[in-house]
Amino acid sequence: MKTCLRILAVFTLTLATLLCMAPAHAEDGYELWLRYHPLTPGQAVLYRGHTAELIIGSTTPTQIATRNELQRGLSGLLGQDLPLSETVTRDGAIIVGTAASSPLIAKLRLDIQSLGSDGYVIRNVIVDGHPATAIVGGSDIGALYGSFHFLRLLQTGQAIDHLDLHESPRIKLRVLDHWDYLNGQIERGYAGASIWDWWKLPDWRAPRYTDYARANASIGINGTVLNDVTGGATILTTTYLQKVAALADVFRPYGIRVYLSVRFSAPIEIGGLKTADPLDPQVRAWWRAKADEIYQLIPDFGGFLVKADSEGQPGPQDYKRTHADGANMLADALAPHGGIVMWRTFVYSQANKDDRAKQAYEEFKPLDGQFHANVLLQTKNGPIDFQPREPFHPLFGAMPKTPLMMEFEITKEYLGFATHLVYLGPLYEEVLSSDTMERGMGSTVAKVIDGSLEGHALSGMAGDANIGADRNWCGSDFNQANWYVFGRLAWNPTLSSRAIAEEWVRMTFTNNEAFVKPVVDMMMGSREAAVDYMTPLGLLHLMGPGHHYGPAPWDASESEADWRPVYYHRADRQGIGFDRSSTGSNAVAQYAPAIAAQFNDMAQTPERFLLYFHHVPWDYRMRSGQTLWYELVAHYTQGVDDVKQMRATWSHLHGYIDEERYQQVATFLAIQEKEAQWWRDACIAYFQSISGRPLPPGYAPPQRSLKYYESLTFPYVPGYSSW
Amino acid sequence: MKTCLRILAVFTLTLATLLCMAPAHAEDGYELWLRYHPLTPGQAVLYRGHTAELIIGSTTPTQIATRNELQRGLSGLLGQDLPLSETVTRDGAIIVGTAASSPLIAKLRLDIQSLGSDGYVIRNVIVDGHPATAIVGGSDIGALYGSFHFLRLLQTGQAIDHLDLHESPRIKLRVLDHWDYLNGQIERGYAGASIWDWWKLPDWRAPRYTDYARANASIGINGTVLNDVTGGATILTTTYLQKVAALADVFRPYGIRVYLSVRFSAPIEIGGLKTADPLDPQVRAWWRAKADEIYQLIPDFGGFLVKADSEGQPGPQDYKRTHADGANMLADALAPHGGIVMWRTFVYSQANKDDRAKQAYEEFKPLDGQFHANVLLQTKNGPIDFQPREPFHPLFGAMPKTPLMMEFEITKEYLGFATHLVYLGPLYEEVLSSDTMERGMGSTVAKVIDGSLEGHALSGMAGDANIGADRNWCGSDFNQANWYVFGRLAWNPTLSSRAIAEEWVRMTFTNNEAFVKPVVDMMMGSREAAVDYMTPLGLLHLMGPGHHYGPAPWDASESEADWRPVYYHRADRQGIGFDRSSTGSNAVAQYAPAIAAQFNDMAQTPERFLLYFHHVPWDYRMRSGQTLWYELVAHYTQGVDDVKQMRATWSHLHGYIDEERYQQVATFLAIQEKEAQWWRDACIAYFQSISGRPLPPGYAPPQRSLKYYESLTFPYVPGYSSW
């Protein structure tokens, strides 16, 4: 037996060598959080008894996709293929499906109906005397979602022997908005070109499209707007609709509907009409016919996203009609087919000299009650434009008769592009948990957008995608977390961003606690760090003109006043900040009275919003006892120090994960530190030139002169060009 | 022992299962011809005795790269790691290096000096009584090239027990020209965005850059022009030169120098001068200082590529200076550092009403002898512009005092973009083997450009790259063959394109003969098929305006006469073709007398060039005995039939290779068939409208009307926009 063991040892060694010699596919981030790499033997052994066989239908495309995913996931994680079975033949079966499609599941009599079609139950059950795990959906899609949830439990090292999970999404439409042009460029894209290879569609359906659908389904995303809101009308030509239909075919098994951004003037541009007036019968007929054509090709088409009368886009106001006239006209064309309209509230006019922060509210609130049932108003989280920090948008809660859809930006247009590590979970959570007070305490933004506050059946959350053709999808490994957290919060806007970060780290990197804890901490602090080194204390919109790269608080090159940083910070010899109190633009009055009263009072306003709502003297005493000027410098400096700390944290984590991703993160953190320092120094140099005050003791002066920072120019900034 | 065996068997099974379960990395083409997947056991066993240990230096970066490549390649192919050794300890050692760096190699006294620094010898030798294989380079780079050659022998299943190979490149500069803009777009690029992530350089050096260098070194390419010839001057700013330097650092160990396309007006654009006159002392000083700055950052910088006085680009003629004045001024700036200038001869002027085919010759031939020693004239293979077929450029052989550099197009601007399977080897070979007759029979184009005909030390071949950010690098698997064949012919322009195709197929797909033979046959016929369905019998330039997609022989929308198809085909009621004989533009006179006489005579002109040199009556009797009109229709039809045959061939090869690449090729062939049919039908419909003749019996009429084909428009064609 000793010889035997020796032979075995040699043999093992040989095979192990062979194993290590398999073509080295580096970890390049392509697999996202669905890596399914082998668990440690210690973990795997805990799950073996509960993963003995798989009982699942394979009649529908969604059932096949679900089965494939479970087989791929479980075989990857556990290192063994799961036998398929028709019936329960042993302990540890996994039974997946719906009551409608499986008599075995029907017999379990699980209470699934209240969870709706996207909901699911995961429960340990006994079948014919055998312990088993049932993953039961309200529909095939619910079962798919449940299967991803089950895989997540294993991926994150959780126990699966006492499961009784009941899940259903709180928000109906969970949608990615792609700002992709048909020429392959992406507005505010920092991860390469568009993943849609329009030219080769509909013939070539790249395998990546399926992986895109898998990733989205794994976090509950059920819709995708394929094209940019500022593109032309070509997407609505028959040639392109056939391409869209091919993508819809790929996505359908994963429960993902396609939507399109449409240009309001399409009837003129491609329809040959002389007008796009929403009340013109020919225009209405054109859109109806176009909708009919679309549904002929794509029976489950989702609907339209519209940016109208905003930043130069055509819209109903070109014909002296209202946003409601425009939205309803499109909604009527889609209604017979079950489609919906997502109408953006991001409108402001340079002709309107009033505070830009107030304009969307002024435009839309009077229209409450005038929109048809299949219209949602898609509203950005804050009143300006996806800044590192803004207060919640005053429209949330202010239009009780209209479903308001949240629009978050996932791509980091204002938060460091691809290379800054900024986890957006805390930003999203901060907004969603904000209390609008519209129906008393607890009227959170989350309750407005999930429809529960006003009892809307239709609800939605949109995320402006950060996905491109880069191998790692999002331009950096950590940017993948922002896609992930968006999806998870769209499913349930009350989840904790920390818990989501931890899930993501475990799935994306490792379950090693020595890695998980510091990385989650680093992620959770990263957004506040960015706020500090970019726009602390309620400042915003200090970035470079047009391309939005780097600091330019001095910039006055933009054609319009409200595109210039000086419009927003209003720094002068006396102080800094935009007075939106009752002595200023009175934007505070757009909030519910209790909120308005708080924001109206400099002393009560949370310091994180201070300079958003008030013009504050440089020597104003902050809660710390220090002056505003001191605090401003301190925050800028803290932001840089935080990034230095992030680098230090990361440097201690070498060896816990693959070298390739480790090195890329390390390089990007070095870029982030360099740019954080630049932001701090440039902003302090500029604001000091206005405040005229010395730096507080102990704070280093800017490394270069203000003149130097002002002299920098940046050609070829990604995500921006004069299309 | 029986129990023991049983345990072993179970164990083997378990491990084998584990092996098969390693995350399924699909074959996505990323590995190119360097896949190094395991050979069949039958093949591997032949090599084991010759791959027992590896003796190689690891002092220089190139030595380390060579060692890494051999270890990666041999372990992948043979499934076993090669032990490193300092001395020969057993039979079957592989000894790699140079006489200068290895006493062991010096002792072998191989005749390597005559092969030059890039050359190498691979020979079976005996060392201390042990049979071994020596891979000896004239320099580290020569040893690297030899190592790739050695790996290729194994990859293609050749014997390695009687090796005595002596190789050195016949052409000195073997260069890829990237038409990549700094904004990530690629002119005439069909494989996604640029692989250069300029924005993240110099900090982030993507691992892909190293794989790019490996692939190029494996086929002997030793230079890369990073940016498009029509870009601006930003690449010469210090910020961008630092990015270029980072790429140069990555490429250096692989023997690849970087070159830049420079804009002649750079002294004005970024230098603040008022002129770019090449004889102006300030301009000359500016370029000298710029060259000094570049070499400070990149000591082995290669030099400049220039497109001047061509298609709107600035140049010396703006200042009434000659091309020689312009090129020499730049050459003088580079000369102290050993850099060279590649000056393009692709010039023509719309002010010049003479035959466009004649203009480059007329412009440059008088300047022969006026260029400084470090200038090459980069000349396209034919006089027009990379058409599916052109006669060789008349400048080849006509400027004996000047090194002429070949420019081939690898990206398939005129040959079906990404999706048509067109192997360019036969096109390159046809040009290279053309006899200019300038110094009598055998004065081939290959001998002109390798410098041997006129005794030039400097020689070069450039290929306009087809590389982009697509995962498979080139937009399709078969397009990789065009990168490959370009490199192999730049190394030795007398190689057979068929032999190269076979090498490539074996390395890229499989050594299975049942696959290799039909695929090589298909590749070898593919270019003639494209000529037939696009532009047979000497026709050219019939493609769509600007974007160059699809047929448009009728098109007159281009602003300039010589950008219009009708300028080239000149079809009328009587016949078709461009009379370049002595009765026409007399372009034939630019060739050596014997060639000119042949081309001048309609009866002697090869039919593949007939309509290039002659306006031929529709009823002209071809060698087949049929009329020209009949032959034209027959060729168009044959092209489509050939593609149908290619599809049929491929459909029989299912199962020989991975499913993912199989399916993509199958899909692309379907696109190719559709588009070949469209080309045939549109061209026949159009030419029939002019010839007024019925289709020959048995030939199907076009599927749609001429009006339909004329009505087609194509937005967002890849590789083209109005930058």
Automatic annotation (TrEMBL), chains A, B:
Residues 154-473 form the Glycosyl hydrolase family 67 catalytic domain. It catalyses: Hydrolysis of (1->2)-alpha-D-(4-O-methyl)glucuronosyl links in the main chain of hardwood xylans. Its EC number is 3.2.1.131. It comes from Dyella flava. Keywords: Carbohydrate metabolism, Glycosidase, Hydrolase, Polysaccharide degradation, Signal, Xylan degradation. Residues 32-150 form the Alpha glucuronidase N-terminal domain. The keyword Amino-acid biosynthesis does not apply. This is Xylan alpha-1,2-glucuronidase. It comes from the Bacteria. SUPFAM superfamilies: (Trans)glycosidases (SSF51445), beta-N-acetylhexosaminidase-like domain (SSF55545). The keyword Signal applies. Homodimer. Belongs to the glycosyl hydrolase 67 family. Residues 1-26 form the signal peptide. Pfam families: Glyco_hydro_67C (PF07477), Glyco_hydro_67M (PF07488), Glyco_hydro_67N (PF03648). PANTHER family: ALPHA-GLUCURONIDASE A. Residues 474-698 form the Glycosyl hydrolase family 67 C-terminal domain.
